[in-house]
DNA sequence: AGCACA
């Protein structure tokens, strides 16, 4: 690899009170992610994120540029002028996709103890059971210029006509926080809605699976947008959320702030427990 | 680009 190649993404547009860990958690599931850090230049937050190479860095830019970070802020992503310097303590923030460090100074501790990511992402051969479903063949850049504000429900477009529910379950149902999905065979196009327990979990999938090329894909990768309405809800004539499926409170997933990214559930345990309070900003 | 619904 060309050591001079710029593989660092420069991100601005964060709200004043953003935390570095919000940056880390926003990006850590992207292919090629290695590390990220937040700098503050006279009160303005500036994010830097290192990827394995220029290609994965550009893919990250494509999927996060103009991303609506919260109600009032939109992120600007571009290639940095020069690569960021990785401090030793960045190791704890490393993603699981990153190339292992040459001299392996990080092997003394487990960078990512949570075994919640799909096994097909695990770089270690010993950790990859043969029975795991195959992941996406590849990722392509998809245009996603008209996305909506973050929502706990994802809208999946650009699906091939032959896409199956199990194919979608393999990719979306294995992600932390998964609740349910619905495949929709329209006359003109096939779409899918995927619900997660919280916005943070949906945001992680929105970023990590953007442009995934499925076995059935015949027109490039899938396009992932945040749904206009949370699963099980619609808007009434006054524009307020109305529950259309019993068991979900009004409006909670859209008013929840896009912070506190820790997914609270593991695959298969996505359904909110009875009486559990709604997340509060 | 297409936003469904016990």
UniProtKB/TrEMBL annotation:
InterPro entries assigned: Nucleotide-bd_a/b_plait_sf, RBD_domain_sf, RRM_dom
Keywords, in A-Z order: RNA-binding
Keyword RNA-binding recorded: yes
Domain RRM, residue spans: 152-229
PROSITE patterns documented for this protein: RRM
Any Pfam family: RRM_1
Coiled-coil blocks: none
This protein's name: RRM domain-containing protein
Organism, scientific name: Symbiochloris irregularis
């Amino acid at each position: 690899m060309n050591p001079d190649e710029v593989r660092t993404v420069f991100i601005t547009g964060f709200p004043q009170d953003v935390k570095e860990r919000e940056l880390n958690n926003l990006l850590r599931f992207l292919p090629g992610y290695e590390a990220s850090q937040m700098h503050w230049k006279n009160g303005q937050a500036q994010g830097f994120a290192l990827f394995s190479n220029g290609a994965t860095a550009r893919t990250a830019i494509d999927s996060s540029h103009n991303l609506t970070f919260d109600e009032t802020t939109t992120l600007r992503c571009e290639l940095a002028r020069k690569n960021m310097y990785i401090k030793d303590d960045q190791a704890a923030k490393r993603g699981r996709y990153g190339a292992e460090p040459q001299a392996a100074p990080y092997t003394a501790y487990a960078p990512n103890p949570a075994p919640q990511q799909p096994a097909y992402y695990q770089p270690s051969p010993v950790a990859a059971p043969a029975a795991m479903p195959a992941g996406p063949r590849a990722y392509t850049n998809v245009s996603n210029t008209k996305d909506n504000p973050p929502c706990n429900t994802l809208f999946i477009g650009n699906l091939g006509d032959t896409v199956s529910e199990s194919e979608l379950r393999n990719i979306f149902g294995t992600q932390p926080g998964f609740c349910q999905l619905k495949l929709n065979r329209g006359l003109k196009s096939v779409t899918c809605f995927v619900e997660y327990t919280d916005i943070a979990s949906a945001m992680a999938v929105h970023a990590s699976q953007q442009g995934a090329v499925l076995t059935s894909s015949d027109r490039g990768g899938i396009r992932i947008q945040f749904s206009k309405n949370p699963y099980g809800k619609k808007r009434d004539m006054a524009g307020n959320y109305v529950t259309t499926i019993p068991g979900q409170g009004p409006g909670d997933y859209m008013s929840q702030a896009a912070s506190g990214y820790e997914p609270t559930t593991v695959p298969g345990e996505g359904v909110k427990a009875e009486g559990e309070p709604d997340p509060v900003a």
